[in-house]
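Raw record, unedited: Tyrosinase copper-binding domain-containing protein
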Amino acid sequence: MKITQTVALAALLATVSAKAIPAQPKSQLKSTPKKMVDTTSLHFYNGTCTAENIRVRKEWRNMAPSEKSAYLKAEQCLFNLPAATTLSGVTSRFSDLQSLHRDKTNQTIDGLYVQDIIHNVGQFLPWHRYYMHAHETLLRTECGYTGPMSWWDEAKDADAGDFFRSDMWTAEYFGSTNLDENACVIDGAFANTTEHIGPLLENTDYCFYRAFDLTQVQYCTSEKVAECTQYNDYYSFFNCMVIYPTSPHVAGHAAVGGMMADIDCSAGDPAFFMHHNYVDRMWWQWQQANATSRMFDISGNSLNETYLAEQGDVAPAAGWPQTTLEYTLTTADILPDIQIYDVVNIQGGYLCYEYDY
């Protein structure tokens, strides 16, 4: 297992480095907004989302003990429900989500293997926002969860010099930092879980594992986040925040390590959803800061141009396709297909939530 951990982490860091999106002309960096949004308020209600029905996503430490318990019980429910997709390796409803994530990192389009269409591409952030919504929808509709969704304030803990100080990292909740000799998780709500999807592209039985790496925490600080939020265009912001090997997104995965460092199968760790709700919050805060120009700003290649070039694939005369607001987001029938435009505003009607801070 220790060899597998090393391979998975190396694959994560090498992949994000190799897949980094090349620079584009500035003229390609912004899409024209379809509508203006109200910048006089921190809320951007539209359609059916109102102050009366908006849901609040709470940082884990702001959850009441009863809310924490209910959240983890709902997550365990997904582990116990049968799979409902035909994706590879699935054995439960939770594994439907995990296999979906892996499937999107290994795609063939019109007979061409294009590899990953949810990382290192312009649709990274909106796809993962929709993926977080898919996770929430399953918790609520199939496991009866009625409480708040949660997130982990990683910058707060990185700044304090104790990255795993939150009580989510205890034997009562997501599992402590105590691991067995193979780095298997042996306490918490998901102790002694047997994984069936992964590592990487395999379907094998192995323990649910982590491999904490504190050398990555330096890239998770609020100073690093601020370095990224200073950018005014989406392309520069999302490369800094989620794509580069030293980005807060990549560093968060690598710091938890183990399954979280497996770019294909990382969603097998329930902490993945705490991490990506945090990433989604960072995007939303960046959008809020200048909603008129940022709310509908989307850009970047929709295919991994670097990977395709390495394989000798020649770009069409018009270039590889770009990510636009009309790009279709899919979730293997877990949820209906939608467009990026539907999720850029988390209070726009299709989505309806906010963060507690």
